[in-house]
Amino acid sequence: MSSKEKLYRLLYISLLEIRNDACISGNKKTFEIANLIHNLPLKLSTEAPNFDNILGEIVDSAKENKGLKKILNKNFIN
Q1: What is the mean pLDDT of each run of 10 residues along the chain (78 residues)?
Q2: Cα gap 37→24, rounded to integer Å
Q3: b/e per residue, 14-52, with b = 16+ CB within 10 A?
Q4: 62 close to 68: Cβ distance less than 8 angstroms
Q5: DSSP string of 7-48, one letter each residue
Q6: What angle do the packed helices 51-62 and 28-37 form, to 10 degrees?
Q7: CA distances from 51 to 9, 22, 28, 40 (A)
Q8: What's the pLDDT at 70?
Q9: What pLDDT score was predicted for residue 78?
Q10: How high is the pLDDT of residue 13?
């Protein structure tokens, strides 16, 4: 496994841990954010990621959560 792959894996595992801890503590906002993006490192680690498709998937997933949709619209989506 290359250093690049290890770093993506580390990000993925870290987001899963954050999601798990947020679930245990009842921190809904942190859970929802981590749940939304925990697969992002693995998707980015592919040989030729399609960034538009990945972003579209995240935006579509966030539509079900008003708070996350607001965060995305405010910070990332023009």
Answers
A1: 93 96 94 92 93 90 79 73
A2: 18
A3: ebeebbeebeeeeeeeebbbbbbbbbbbebebeeeeeee
A4: yes
A5: HHHHHHHHHHHHHHHHHHHT-HHHHHHHHHHTTHHHHHTSSS
A6: 150
A7: 18, 27, 27, 10
A8: 79
A9: 57
A10: 97
Distance CA(75)–CA(61), nearest Å, equals: 16
Token reading at 22:
């947020």
Phi/psi of residue 27, each to 5°? -85, 90
**Backbone torsions φ then ψ of 30, nearest 5 degrees:** -65, -40
Give CA–CA dist 54/61, Å, rounded. Answer: 11
Contact call for residues 32 and 68 (beta carbons, < 8 A): yes
Which tokens go with 46?
């592919």
Distance of CA 56 to the CA centre of its chain: 12
